[in-house]
Amino acid sequence: AAAPPPARAQQRPAEAAGDAGLGPAAAQEGAELAELAAVIGATVPTGFEQTAAEEVREKLGSASRISKDRGKIYFEVPARSLPQVHRLRSVDNLFVVVQEFKDYQFKENKEDALKDLEDLVKKLPWTDPLKVWELNNSLKKKKTKRKKHNLQSPASRGKLSDGGEEGGEDQNNTNDQEDCAQNPVAVEPTGGQDTENPQGVTSRNGVEEEEDDEQSDVKAEVQASSESGSRAGEGQAGAGEAKVLRFRVTCNRAGDKHSFTSNEAARDFGGAVQEHFQWKADMTNFDVEVLLNIHSNEVVVGIALTEESLHRRNITHFGPTTLRSTLAYGMLRLCDPQPTDIIVDPMCGTGAIPIEGAAEWPCCYHIAGDNNPQAVKRAANNISSLLRKNESKDSSTALGVPLDVIQWDICRLPLRTGSVDVVVTDMPFGKRIGSKKKNWDLYPACLMEMGRICTPGTGRAVLLTQDKKCFAKALSRVGHIWRRAQTVWVNVGGLHAAVYLLRRTSEPAQDTRPFW
């Protein structure tokens, strides 16, 4: 007999339940759910795990554990804190942990190893994680309802869902929590079909187009469960009241000592999930995404809480090398912005860094610039989108954002010497934009000009580059004005890159620019 998912969908804290007109029993049940402890897993930009852990401690008061599997952290919060969890700036994707095995012993024989994974499904404590997943869905339903009045126009929706401008980098970026090779797979176990999913846990096929349909499906499940008390997969009479959940399994595997592939693990584990809950497998239009993360001997089973990566929160107009908002947040946090700081991104591209800065550090003033007119136009459009977003939240308090965008020459910035507190920028890697050869001239000139505009003694710079050899040489030439304080190794679209924190020396800069 199939075991049903032991959870009710419409569950809130007692006061919310009272507002909804539910009885004392339902209110009590909602209160118990709100106090339920949930272990949350989060994927974060590789290299910024500590930054994410610090943000969780500051905003949620929870201690985090950084996984051996780079690019992941785990922390425990009460279920009522889910809205605040979704507002974290440093996390890409969220999932609730069903169970974690720190030293799982895989059998050497492939069939035995896969059989153990199948048998594991029946032993896992699904009850509380499914309650957390259902509460998360009810929160998403409310959020979607609020957005109904501010739907985007078809034209802007097209821009959002068009992957052309976002380019290959963003697709690669979504999995940069893994340094070693991953094979993320989503498998429909009934047909035995192995379908590669290039973006792994972070992608959703056609999420923009199908969002409304999926939310309405979730709403139907919430209503069916709360009104009739029926559970998915029970097969009771009046089956029209209960909706069979659709699911898929996504497996991320790293390590060379496994006798099976990610495809095989997801297929067999997914088959066992289907048999256990009597859910329906669906690769694209699913309600539940079960995650099977395998890193050497560490195994984590989870249920996804995000439909698409949270790093997409700010950007609507993408360029060929759009930086993820979560990585931008990590870079900004590294320079420790203080109120009234003037923060400049002299090579802003689509504006990911200054837009993230203006949203999270509104007491600073942010200046974005680029020499490419198309990039400046995209940045301006993204700023306009942010303004519209702020207005839709509360038009009575919308005051704009402390951010300007300008077209300029990085080597001849129209800024007074010593007038800037912080420079944060994503420097050309010399791959999609520019070339490694040009970087040998560009990097020293950039560092000199950044040193000129930064305040001696207190100025900081946080610079991202993959061209580490060129950067090291350029830095050695300007050692009298910049000192390297910290290096964070990151993975950007499969490229091993570095984020450098530089501190401005007290040496005065020489302004060699001619007067005009």
UniProtKB/TrEMBL annotation:
InterPro entries: RlmKL-like_Mtase (IPR000241), RlmKL-like_Mtase_CS (IPR053943), SAM-dependent_MTases_sf (IPR029063), THUMP_dom (IPR004114)
GO-annotated molecular function: RNA binding; tRNA (guanine) methyltransferase activity
Protein location: Cytoplasm
Presence of keyword RNA-binding: yes
Compositional bias ranges of the Basic residues kind: 141-150
Stored CDD domains: AdoMet_MTases, THUMP_AdoMetMT
Keywords linked to the UniProt accession: Cytoplasm, Methyltransferase, RNA-binding, Transferase, tRNA processing
Any Gene Ontology CC annotation: tRNA methyltransferase complex
Entries under PROSITE patterns matching the protein: THUMP (PS51165), UPF0020 (PS01261)
Top-level taxon of origin: Eukaryota
All copies of domain THUMP, residue ranges: 195-305
Amino acid composition bias (Polar residues), ranges on this chain: 192-205
Region (Disordered): 1-25, 141-239
SUPFAM superfamilies: S-adenosyl-L-methionine-dependent methyltransferases, THUMP domain-like
Pfam families tied to this protein: THUMP (PF02926), UPF0020 (PF01170)
GO biological process: tRNA methylation
Low complexity composition-biased segments: 8-25, 223-239
UniProt cross-references to PANTHER family, sorted A to Z: THUMP DOMAIN-CONTAINING, TRNA (GUANINE(6)-N2)-METHYLTRANSFERASE THUMP3
UniProt family annotation: Belongs to the methyltransferase superfamily.
The protein's name: THUM3 protein
Provenance organism: Nesospiza acunhae
Source taxonomy: Eukaryota, Metazoa, Chordata, Craniata, Vertebrata
